[in-house]
Specification:
Blueprint (H helix, E strand, L loop, with lengths): L2 E7 L15 H5 L3 H5 L4 E7 L4 H13 L4 E11 L6 E3 L9 H4 L1 E2 H8 L7 E9 L1 H9 L8 E8 L11 H10 L7 H13 L36 H10 L3 H19 L4 H16 L3 H17 L7 H14 L5 H17 L7 H17 L1
Parallel strand pairs: 1-2, 1-3, 3-6, 6-7
Antiparallel strand pairs: 3-4, 4-5
């Protein structure tokens, strides 16, 4: 099956740049696409110093929905936003003061990759840090979510002021240029040895669901299990989606949501989790209106449960609802969902400026068309 490769090299323009991320792209571009992906054929999407987090999200979302193996090569730097202490990948316009609005939240990566089949997704990362983010990552190791293989390097704060070279990714690309792609753990070890020598203190802890136990997996949260300990509902849902049985997948998720409601009550993290799964399943099934409606319900449930309007989870739900609503083409559905989205945007404007105004204008446009 064809593979998909997403190359992302991102760093701020100006004095906030810690790494010359884009310098590695020519080396990666010289590698045959099938070698980058580890598949007989592959398509590649490249993002060099992207400006807008929504652009990165759109490319990541499209890559995550593609069938077949997905490999993400990520080069850049990470920072904490000062308000919520959430980790972000810095983009071209990111500064220390604006990272919450101009950076790409790391949890968006785990959100978009979470429903991919285990063992089909790999993230290879060469990331640099400032003192704050380095300290946070020392306490809480980075992960890309269950079922996602994560390899790479996180470099500690550099003493020199000039941007660093992404040495790990350059070494990895040099190895792959031969046309031979060794197993991931072996590839990672060779790249680390070539770029870091004997000093491996800044290597990412390896997490690979398919690797042997010696690979020292990062602790990751397991999907919720209920009265049936032998069943992984996520695996059954993924299998149904891959087979095109979207109705069956949705019914399974709804069943587990009802069970979570009975056991833990509305607003519980278990019940909200299954609402989010249903929202993603509707998107996979090509039903943006139903997906939007479900994400609106997720945002409402989180707010009702006491989460702040500017919390990452509430903002993510509102952003997804808005994104899906923009893709609804049926005028009646647009008008039906629009008022709830506008009301949500009044409470949860999100990181992007003007979201409320955009929602109001689109809704007015469709009402004008109805009158005309």
């Amino acid at each position: 099956m064809p593979g998909t490769v997403l190359l992302v090299a991102a760093a701020p323009v100006g004095k906030g740049r810690l790494v010359d991320a884009a310098s590695v792209l020519p080396v990666l571009a010289a590698v045959p696409p099938q070698t980058l992906a580890g598949t007989p054929t592959a398509s590649i999407v490249e993002l060099a110093d992207p400006l807008d987090p929504q652009t990165v999200l759109t490319r990541l979302r499209a890559a995550a929905m593609a069938p077949g193996p997905l490999t993400i090569y990520l080069i850049g730097q990470v920072h904490l936003d000062r308000r919520q202490r959430q980790l972000h990948v810095a983009l071209a316009r990111t500064t220390t003061a604006t990272v919450r609005y101009t950076g790409f939240p790391w949890h968006w990566i785990t959100q978009e990759l979470r429903l991919r089949p285990a063992g089909t997704t790999t993230v290879l990362a060469d990331l640099h840090t400032d003192p704050e983010s380095w300290q946070a990552l020392t306490a809480q190791p980075l992960d890309a979510g269950p079922g996602v293989a994560l390899y790479g390097r996180i470099a500690p704060p550099a003493r020199r002021r000039t941007p660093a070279t992404p040495a790990y990714m350059k070494a990895l690309a040099t190895i792959l240029r031969s046309g031979h792609r060794p197993p991931l753990l072996e590839l990672h070890q060779h790249a680390a040895a070539q770029s870091l020598g004997d000093d491996a203190q800044d290597l990412l802890p390896v997490h690979d669901p398919a690797a042997p136990a010696a690979a020292a997996p990062v602790p990751v949260p397991h999907p919720p299990r209920q009265d049936d300990a032998g069943m992984d509902p996520h695996a059954a849902i993924t299998a149904a989606v891959e087979a095109g049985r979207h109705g069956e997948a949705s019914a399974l998720a709804a069943s587990w949501e009802q069970s979570a409601l009975r056991m833990n009550g509305p607003g519980s993290k278990e019940a909200i989790h299954w609402m989010e799964v249903r929202a993603d399943l509707a998107r996979f099934a090509g039903d943006p209106a139903r997906s939007c409606e479900t994400w609106l319900a997720v945002a409402s449930a989180r707010l009702t449960a006491g989460q702040a309007p500017d919390s990452p989870e509430v903002e993510a739900a509102a952003d997804r609802a808005h994104h899906l609503w923009d893709r609804v083409r049926d005028p009646e559905a647009v008008r039906g969902l629009g008022p709830a989205l506008v009301a949500l945007r009044r409470r949860v404007p999100g990181r992007q400026r003007g979201t409320l105004l955009l929602a109001q204008r689109r809704l007015e446009q469709f009402h004008t068309q109805q009158v005309g």
